[in-house]
Design brief:
Blueprint (H helix, E strand, L loop, with lengths): L2 H24 L46 E8 L2 E8 L4 H12 L6 E7 L3 E8 L26 E4 L12 E4 L17 E7 L1 H7 L4 E4 L2 E5 L4 E8 L8
């Protein structure tokens, strides 16, 4: 083998080696490969839509729909045999009593009940008896007393009626005809919980306090002629008559 031939062979080998390096450089991944970071928990677009599964991957639960905002106040119209009374309920300060009252309204429990206890210059009480002075069935469990919510038993306020047990209120309520601050003082461990107020129809409450009363079935201050709550329904603020 001659010296010139060896030189040519060496040069050819070097050329082939350089070509292989070039091809390797063309197929080399990036020095800083892109990585897939987990999406932030609140990034909705990166969350799967729907609950289907497939391809061996576990599907994530569908995102929960936002809950409907709950108003801090609710309005109820009491249609009575003496006229209409509009109540404004304070859910912000008396959530338990408000939800309890609305539950009875929604299931039409108050329809056909009477104001069975009427005392002038004090209050009118209803929501538990039928026109024949029979206790209406279908009451739910008693609720907790919310008497420390800052609301006072003043004229026009609506409160939960109860027995000597502070946490015995169910469906019965009363409307104060005058300011009754003594009802804000703890008795039997608690006062009487206010949860709303009359915003229209207070003159109807005043008319109810003027009816003749008697004793009936062991109950005092019962109207001689029943004062009936024909219906109790939720209404909007715009439905309340302006003073």
């Amino acid at each position: 083998m001659t010296k010139s031939f060896m030189t040519i062979l060496a040069a050819l080998s070097a050329t082939m080696l350089l070509a292989g390096v070039a091809r390797a450089q063309e197929s080399k991944p990036e020095d800083k490969p892109k990585t897939t970071q987990p999406a932030p928990a609140d990034k909705k677009d990166d969350k799967p839509a729907g609950g289907g599964s497939g391809g061996g991957t576990s599907a994530q639960p569908a995102e929960k729909a936002p809950e409907k905002a709950v108003s801090n106040v609710e309005y109820v119209k009491l249609t009575t045999s003496k006229g209409d009374i509009y109540l404004k309920l304070d859910r912000a300060k008396a959530p338990i009593s408000t939800e309890n009252f609305l539950k009875y309204v929604d299931k039409k429990y108050y329809d056909g009940t009477i104001f069975h206890r009427v005392i002038p210059s004090f209050m009118v009480q209803g929501g538990g008896f039928t026109s024949d002075m029979k206790p209406k069935e279908g009451q739910d469990k008693p609720i907790s007393n919310e008497w420390q919510n800052g609301l006072k038993n003043k004229r026009g306020s609506v409160s939960m009626a109860r027995t000597a047990n502070p946490n015995s209120a169910t469906s019965q309520f009363f409307i104060n005809n005058v300011d009754n601050p003594f009802l804000d003082q703890p008795r039997d461990g608690a006062a009487y919980a206010v949860f709303g107020e009359v915003v229209a129809g207070m003159e109807v409450v005043d008319e109810i306090t003027k009816v003749k009363t008697t004793s009936r079935g062991g109950n005092e201050n019962v109207p001689v002629e029943p004062v009936t709550i024909t219906s109790a329904t939720r209404v909007k603020e715009t439905d309340v008559p302006k003073k």
